[in-house]
Amino acid sequence: MTRPKSKPKSAIRPNARKTDKPASRKRLAPASSKLASRPDTKHNRIVAMLRAPAGATIAAIMIATDWQQHSVRGFLAGVVRKKLGLNLVSEQTEKGRVYRIKDGKASPAAVARTKQAA
Q1: What is d(CA 118, CA 113) in angstroms, rounded to the nearest whole number?
Q2: Which one of 2, 45, 78, 101 has the lowest number of neighbouring Cβ atoms within 10 Å?
Q3: Which helix (H) or strand (E) covers residue 104, if one does?
Q4: Residue 6 falls inside a structural domain
């Protein structure tokens, strides 16, 4: 018993494709509103600790966030310095190395990066 031959797939599919793009969805709220609606995040706690006049040590940030030492250092370099562009300074004191955000201004390196991008 033999099966009847079927048509090739190209004959089954319509040749004309739709070129109309579907309507794009509009976001209900901008992404920045997420930060405003979540005030008590680890990110905000660390930045608040660094903005305090006394600053913060890596050990204090580790306790506040339950992060490991390398994670805290990565956050300071990647988020605080690069992404946020804040002027993070460190000093050696009796308590150990203390980090703080100096002024609210961007660091000279962040200013140079924005000039290069423009």
Answers
A1: 9
A2: 2
A3: strand 96-106
A4: no
CA atoms within 13 A on the CB side of 11: 3
Q: What is the mean pLDDT of residues 29-54?
A: 78
Residue 17 lies in a domain: no
Nearest Cα neighbor of 50 from 78, 2, 87 is 87
Determine the Cα–Cα distance for residues 94 and 97; give it in Å rounded to an integer. Answer: 8
Q: What is the CATH number of the domain that holds 49?
A: 1.10.10
Decide if 26 is inside a domain: no
Residue 9 lies in a domain: no
Chain segment 79-114, per-residue pLDDT in tens:
999 999 999 999 999 989 999 999 866 656 666 665
Angstrom distance (rounded) from CA 117 to CA 95:
39
